[in-house]
Amino acid sequence: MLPKPLLVTAGGALFRSDCLRLLGAVADDSVACVFADPPFDLGKDYGGGSRADQRGEEAYLAWCKSWLDECCRVLMPGGALFVYNLPRWLLSIGAHLLGRLEFRHWIALTMKSTYPRGQRLYPAHYGLLYFTKGPPRAFHKLRVPVPVCRHCGGDSKDYGGHRSALNPEGLSLTDFWEDTSPVRHRKFKTRAANELKPMIPRRAIEMSTVPGDLVLDPFGGGGSTYEAAEELGRNWIGGELADCAPILERLSRFPSRARLPAPVRAALRR
Ligand SMILES: C[S@@+](CC[C@H](N)C(=O)[O-])C[C@H]1O[C@@H](n2cnc3c(N)ncnc32)[C@H](O)[C@@H]1O
């Protein structure tokens, strides 16, 4: 049984819950999009002590597989699963998902402010895996503004003389996202630990769902997925094991409700 929600809005509900407990309460084939940005096993302290995020390779991957299987179960046919992580972990996560879902993309997001470790290359990207449960039920091609030079304001790329032929709404989004550094600038963060730029879950949701669809994120963090879902008119179910105050703060501009939204109620029938 899930605890009572900490927050209910017009679009969704937030639970202070372990991811497996949350997912276990969700009905089969009921969610249009799962966005998962789990801890990376790097010993970060999310409130449970750093050892909670230092399982070691075998235990970490076994844990990931247990919640990934639950994500596959709750996705509706054509639903989308996005998993954000380090390339190192995404290799095993992707291999596990290959027999269960259909691969769509490995999206690379440029990573800034890192440093080379030992005998390795300088790590310059994180990955966002995108799988669907069979052929996608929704897919929207997104556009991004034509990149400009931050010094002179002119185009930062040469379009081979075809600049005027570019779509005025911008360039098609590719699987290489260099316009957003993955971790939010300190100034915009609502908490100290990792928090994504809202643009990242927002794009995933816009790409793979339609208004009214249900989005689930079992690793709430600072609540960037829930904010994006609420703004985009999607329903959402959120969970976070540690401190939920940053999420409550971020969502405080959305009026709270007494009753769960109908799609959330329907999905939590299990
Ligand atoms: C990388 S952060 C997510 C950040 C989030 N995407 C954002 O943009 O703010 C991972 C979160 O998962 C939470 N977490 C760790 N273990 C968990 C578990 N077993 N169940 C639910 N949440 C967990 C951590 O407390 C942390 O807030």
List key phrases describing it.
two-stranded antiparallel sheet, alpha/beta, Rossmann fold, 270 residues, 9-stranded mixed β-sheet, binds S-adenosylmethionine
Task: Explain the overall architecture.
The chain has 270 residues and is an alpha/beta fold. The protein is 24% helix and 21% strand. The strands form 2 sheets. It has a 9-stranded mixed β-sheet, with helices on both faces. Helix 2 packs across helix 3. The chain is globular. The protein binds S-adenosylmethionine. The site of S-adenosylmethionine has 19 residues, from strand 11.
Q: Topology of this protein?
A:
Blueprint: E1 7-8, E2 12-16, H1 19-24, E3 31-36, H2 57-74, E4 75-85, H3 87-98, E5 102-110, E6 125-132, E7 143-144, E8 171-172, E9 176-177, H4 199-208, E10 214-217, H5 224-231, E11 235-240, H6 245-250, H7 262-267
Parallel strand pairs: 2-11, 3-4, 3-10, 5-9, 10-11
Antiparallel strand pairs: 1-2, 4-6, 5-6, 7-8
The structure holds S-adenosylmethionine.
S-adenosylmethionine binds next to β11.
CATH homolog superfamily of the domain at 7-81 and 188-267: Vaccinia Virus protein VP39
How much helicity do the residues have?
Answer: 10-25%
Enumerate how many helices there are, as a single number. Answer: 7
What is the CA-based Rg, rounded? Answer: 19 Å
| CATH topology type of the domain at 7-81 and 188-267 | Rossmann fold
Strand content: 15-25%
Largest sheet: 9 strands, mixed
Total strands: 11
Just give the CATH class of the domain at 7-81 and 188-267: Alpha Beta
Which H/E pattern describes the elements?
Answer: EEHEHEHEEEEEHEHEHH
What is the first-to-last residue Cα distance?
A: 9 Å
Task: Calculate the mean pLDDT score and round it.
Answer: 91
Q: Order of strands across the biggest sheet? A: 1-2-11-10-3-4-6-5-9
Low-confidence stretches: none
> Which cofactors or ions or other ligands sit in this model?
S-adenosylmethionine
Structural class: alpha/beta
